């Protein structure tokens, strides 16, 4: 009947559109620009998202949304963040945005670059892809990525500071790394037997700290290390006095901020920058954390943190990840304190990397235990049932016996001379 009557069809369609308009009509959420001539690029269509980048010692890389890891209480075991082979281990961890640039530096002092969104997204159980599969990254045999710098642009006036395991420091203007060949570029010339340890970004007017595996730290102004070209070798930053000691970390040290110190066994602490007096480069430094006779293990990371850094994320060599609040890590007044347990590790595992960050994308109420373990049930208060009243014979009725030593409450006797009031009846 409807199909044979065109007027009826038009009426039905008109009524349906009127209902849609009444239900969904609102102000236009886009602007029609007649003079818009800019062409859209592929990057304009990429979601603006905070991600976690992990790289293994054998060069496997991947990224995951930061929201993959729920916030936990300090000392948790974490969740699996990267699956590695038996002979492999996680080397570095960074928090970045999909529109950032990533500069990778290897143990041999060479640098490569890639855009964060070019790093493949993978699940927590996936080990990622070889870093050589990224466009513009051709790592040679025997090279291992040891440091990653995340940039949203190459601002003139800032620098990249390089530290080696033997205590050498070198500073180079950041614009020299804006154009990187696919075969890589030389970032620092290393002495025989030396390797790159850490790379950080500086402003040119910062204080720097260099920390060693055996718990020594040296603070000095970066002006003592003048800017050099990419192929230069650098100068002495910290003098290693103990046999077998080596540099494991370098960080900017701004007055008023804290240094977050982390050991191999998952212990950590915050220490005010002011606890370490500024000296000159080339000294042996002062104590950062006590290691003699302690079970804390050697130092693996030192990062500057502040009130803006609301959270930290840790990863172990076997790929376990913990994300926790920065405020849960206690602040100690100097280098004599041991610290608190930040991450619980399995036997044979050790902390590999840490990143401090803040994000507006993560939900603030996303707290609790990790998603691989059952949440602890809240403690239910015990309910004590009152005993049933006794029967006429004085024997309690069936059910739970009356607790010994707790006689039933007696009714209050009526006061003498005060007869019970009579019930009033209506006339």
Description:
This protein has 427 residues and is mainly β. It has one domain (42-357): Neuraminidase, CATH 2.120.10. The protein has one helix and 24 strands. The protein has one helix spanning 6-24; strands at residues 50-56, 60-65, 79-80, 90-97, 101-106, 110-115, 129-130, 145-151, 159-164, 168-173, 185-186, 196-202, 207-212, 216-221, 235-236, 247-252, 258-263, 267-272, 286-287, 299-305, 311-316, 320-325, 340-341, 351-357. It has a four-stranded antiparallel sheet with strand order 4-1-2-7, with no helix packed on it. The chain has a four-stranded antiparallel sheet with strand order 3-22-21-24, with no helix packed on it. The longest helix is centred in the N-terminal third of the chain and has 19 residues, at 6-24. The chain is elongated and about 95 Å long. It starts with 5 loop residues before the first helix and ends in a 70-residue tail after the last strand.
The best one-word shape is elongated
**Low-pLDDT windows of residues:** 361-406, 414-427
Largest sheet: 4 strands, antiparallel
Widest β-sheet, arrangement of strands? 4-1-2-7
Q: What is the average of the pLDDT values?
A: 80
Rg is 33 Å
Number of helices: 1
CATH architecture: 6 Propeller
Helix proportion: under 10%
Please tell me the total number of domains: 1
CATH topology: Neuraminidase
Strand content: 25-35%
Structural class based on helices, strands and sheet pairing: mainly beta
Give the C-level CATH assignment: Mainly Beta
Give me the strand/helix succession: HEEEEEEEEEEEEEEEEEEEEEEEE
Number of strands: 24
Distance between the termini: 79 Å
What is the assigned CATH homologous superfamily? DNA gyrase/topoisomerase IV, subunit A, C-terminal
């Amino acid at each position: 009947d409807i199909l044979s009557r065109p007027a009826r069809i038009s009426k039905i369609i008109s009524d349906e559109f009127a209902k849609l308009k009444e239900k969904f009509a609102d102000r236009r959420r886009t602007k029609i620009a007649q003079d818009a001539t800019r062409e859209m690029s592929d990057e304009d269509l990429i979601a603006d998202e905070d991600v976690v980048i992990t790289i293994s010692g054998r060069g496997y890389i991947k990224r995951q949304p930061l929201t993959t890891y729920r916030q936990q209480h300090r000392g948790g075991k974490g969740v699996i963040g990267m699956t590695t082979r038996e002979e492999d281990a996680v080397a570095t961890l960074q928090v970045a945005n999909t529109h950032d640039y990533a500069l990778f530096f290897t143990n041999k002092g060479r640098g490569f670059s890639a855009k964060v969104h070019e790093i493949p997204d993978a699940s927590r159980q996936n080990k990622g892809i070889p870093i050589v599969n990224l466009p513009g990254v051709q790592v040679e045999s025997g090279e291992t990525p040891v440091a990653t710098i995340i940039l949203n642009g190459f601002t003139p006036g800032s620098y990249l500071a390089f530290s080696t395991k033997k205590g050498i420091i070198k500073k180079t203007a950041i614009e020299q790394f804006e154009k990187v060949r696919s075969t890589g570029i030389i970032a620092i010339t290393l002495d025989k037997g030396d390797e790159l340890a850490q790379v950080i970004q500086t402003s040119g007017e910062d204080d720097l700290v260099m920390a060693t595996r055996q718990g020594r730290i040296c603070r000095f102004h970066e002006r003592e290390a003048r800017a050099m070209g990419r192929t230069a070798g650098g100068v002495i930053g910290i003098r290693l006095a103990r046999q077998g000691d080596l540099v494991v970390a370098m960080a900017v040290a701004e007055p008023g901020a804290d240094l977050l110190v982390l050991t191999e066994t998952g212990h950590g602490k915050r220490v005010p920058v002011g606890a370490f007096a500024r000296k000159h480069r080339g000294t042996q430094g002062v104590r950062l954390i006590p290691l003699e006779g302690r079970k804390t293990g050697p130092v693996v990371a030192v990062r500057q943190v502040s009130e803006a850094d609301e959270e930290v994320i840790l990863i172990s060599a076997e790929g376990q990840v913990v994300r926790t609040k920065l405020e849960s890590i206690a602040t100690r007044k100097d280098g004599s304190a041991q610290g608190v347990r930040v991450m619980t590790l399995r036997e044979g595992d050790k902390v590999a990397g840490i990143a401090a960050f803040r994000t507006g994308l993560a939900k603030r109420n996303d707290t609790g235990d990790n998603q691989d373990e059952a949440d602890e049930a809240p403690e239910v208060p015990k309910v004590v049932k009152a005993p049933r009243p006794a029967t006429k014979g004085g024997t309690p009725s069936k059910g739970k016996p009356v607790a010994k030593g707790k006689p039933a409450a007696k009714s209050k006797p009526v006061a003498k001379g005060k007869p019970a009031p009579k019930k009033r009846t209506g006339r």
